[in-house]
Design goal:
This protein is 24% helix and 36% strand. The protein is of the alpha+beta class. It has a domain at 3-198. A hairpin with a 5-residue loop joins β3 and β4 (255-261). α6 (104-115) packs across α8 (131-153), α6 (104-115) crosses α10 and α7 crosses α8. The two termini are 29 Å apart. Residues 94-144 form the RNA polymerase sigma factor 70 region 4 type domain. Residues 238-331, 341-459 form the Pyrrolo-quinoline quinone repeat domain.
């Protein structure tokens, strides 16, 4: 292998590694360029190594961490008199700006734990909070940094091997020694992202993964890969999760569940048949919760005004039913958290935590529960679609919030049912809650409030004519629909009490995240729908009855139904807001899902797997 081949094969991985160590894209590119120049100068000897790439990574590590060691020496050296301090570099300002997107407590916890090597227990004692709270700050902080840096990484580009070789020749002629410069605050991102890159885990499992987008997807007309029969399912609903498609039918007597492997279209396990929850004419609602830990099927029946919910837990790996349980909680009042299902029974005034593996009751709390909800984090927005179809996802965080319907919200640990010691009173009259990225947003008729859970501060974020909907829109922003007295509809992005942007979208009534972007739609078919980027730019305009699915960090799939069973499909490459036709299918709403390059749809009595790339 010559140097050009070596460079082409290894430079993308090396850049990702350097980016993980520096947390700054421009700095990572400088470090990688320096490392390859040194490799080119030693190529005659280096080409004979068993693992030349390992040598390259070692050079990258030394370039980054030598600078940090020198910085620490300078910081600790005694200074007799202060010297003039130059202004911060542009790179430093960019890094600081990125880190400032994190809440203060997250930044503080990351700095103490990763920069100063302070234990979780010591941080908890110093900041006078529980260890669980500190772990939550660390988890959310890692998640937020990974989201920001992954988005930047998708724009990364390196020069050619010829460019590197020319720099090496110039270096050899002029004997100019290059130095590596970086910003001190980058070290927080250094350690945080090195944890993810190298697989180290100090106190918490890694945050939800957001798949990087190396380049825009090269779409092509649908290509059939495989299929499996649906065994007479009447009204199947389709969802995807972690490389597998699930098909659920709650219309038949009982409930039927199938699974397909997205790798080859094969059936993952035999069909699961669950018994009816009650008489055939008493079925009230069916709901599915799919997480990597469980496929939870919920069916509700109503007899003389009394609701009974039957919950059945299925192992997603084997298809084996783990357990079934009946409850007087409404199907919509059942939530899935890591390791536990939470049943909020409003009539009985109890909340019950059930072990996902065994079905045993872990805990029970007697408390009025008007509303039970969990905390959404930016990593959750990596999920394909949060707004359409019966199958939905669970909560990735352990925090459980209970509103008493009056003026108090109380926080519990979902895994144990224990109160965390945090409760907030004086909550204003409201029309709903949204917990996102460490804050609870409270929507009233005309205003949006934010409850900062770390310090209990309640602030009014926005006041307008009529706040009718809200949704996450980006790493740390909340978007809302404000209906003016004149009848105009505006989509407004708010951050820390400041309006970042406002976009007029006539007749807008609904918001839903598509990754970090935002889909805005009306109620009528002729209203249409738009997808807005994190800066408010219109990325796409589609039919109102369409679906926009997130395939990975940047590529999208637009599904536009021309009638009840005919859909037109278009791919949208990352960074290029144009529709590329993939063809059409005869399938209904809720009977189509996609992930990565794979699309599954109910067609002709089968579940068919398609590839969207050539």
């Amino acid at each position: 292998m010559d140097f050009a081949e070596f460079y082409q094969a290894t430079s993308p991985r090396t850049l990702r590694y350097a980016y993980g160590l520096t947390g700054d894209l421009a700095q990572a590119q400088d470090v990688v360029q320096e490392a390859y120049i040194r490799a080119w100068q030693r190529w005659r000897r280096l080409s004979g190594y068993d693992d030349a790439e390992a040598w390259l990574r070692l050079v990258v590590s030394r370039l980054v961490f030598d600078w940090w060691r020198h910085l620490r020496v300078r910081r600790n050296a005694p200074v007799e008199s202060p010297a003039p301090v130059p202004p911060p570099s542009e790179d430093t300002m960019l890094v600081v700006a990125a880190l400032k997107k994190l809440p203060e407590r997250q930044r503080q916890a990351l700095a103490l734990h990763y920069l100063l090597d302070v234990s979780v227990a010591s941080i908890a004692a110093e900041l006078r909070v529980s260890e669980g709270t500190v772990k939550s700050w660390l988890s959310r902080g890692r998640d937020n940094l990974a989201t920001v840096l992954t988005a930047e990484m998708s724009q990364a580009r390196m020069g050619s091997a010829a460019d590197v070789a020319e720099l090496g020749r110039r270096r050899r002629r002029t004997r100019v020694a290059a130095t590596v410069t970086a910003a001190g605050l980058v070290v927080i991102a250094v350690i945080v992202l090195t944890t993810a890159v190298l697989g180290r885990n100090r106190t918490m499992p890694p945050p939800p993964t957001i798949n990087p987008t190396g380049s825009p997807m090269v779409f092509s007309p649908l290509r059939r890969v495989g299929s499996m029969p649906l065994d007479g399912l009447a009204y199947p609903e389709v969802a995807v999760q972690n490389g597998r498609a699930y098909v659920i039918d709650t219309a038949a007597p009982g409930v039927r569940v199938l699974a397909m492997n997205l790798a080859d279209g094969s059936q993952a396990w035999p069909r699961v048949d669950l018994p009816p929850a009650g008489p055939a004419d008493s079925v009230l609602v069916g709901r599915i919760l799919i997480t990597p830990q469980v496929v939870m099927v919920l069916t509700g029946t109503s007899t003389q005004g009394v609701t009974t919910t039957t919950a059945s837990a299925i192992d997603p790996a084997t298809g084996q039913k783990r357990w079934s349980r009946t409850s007087s909680a409404e199907p919509d009042d059942v939530q899935v958290f890591p390791g536990v299902a939470v049943f909020a029974d409003r009539a009985a005034g109890t909340i019950v935590g059930v072990d996902l593996q065994t079905g045993d009751t872990r805990w029970q709390v007697a408390t009025p529960a008007h509303r039970v909800f969990g905390m959404t984090v930016p990593g959750d927005l990596a999920r394909s679609d949060l707004d359409t179809g019966t199958p939905t996802m669970g909560n990735s965080e352990d925090q459980l919030y209970v509103s008493d319907g009056k003026e108090t919200i109380t926080e519990y640990a979902a895994s144990t049912g224990n109160p965390t010691g945090r409760a907030w009173h004086g909550i204003p009259p409201n029309d709903g809650f949204l917990a996102y990225n460490g804050d609870i947003y409270i929507r009233s008729a005309r205003e949006l409030y934010r409850l900062h859970v770390d310090d209990g501060k309640l602030s009014r974020e926005y006041a307008g004519g009529g706040v009718t909907a809200m949704s996450p829109c980006g790493l740390a922003d909340i978007c809302l629909i404000d209906v003016a007295e004149s009848g105009g509809h505006n989509v407004v992005a708010v951050h820390d009490g400041q309006v970042k942007w406002t976009v007029s979208v006539p007749r807008a009534t609904r918001l839903a995240p598509v990754g970090l972007a935002l889909r805005v739609a009306g109620n009528a078919a002729n209203d249409g729908a738009v997808v807005l980027a994190t800066d408010g730019r219109e990325v796409l305009r589609t039919r109102e009855d369409s679906r926009v699915l997130r395939l990975d960090a940047g590529n999208l799939l637009v599904c536009e139904w021309t009638n009840e069973r005919s859909v037109r499909l278009s791919g949208v490459p990352a960074g290029a807001p144009q529709l590329e036709s993939l063809g059409g299918l005869d399938t209904a709403q809720g009977q189509l899902a996609a992930e990565g390059t794979a699309l599954v749809a109910v067609v002709g009595g089968e579940l068919v797997l398609y590839s969207m790339v050539g």
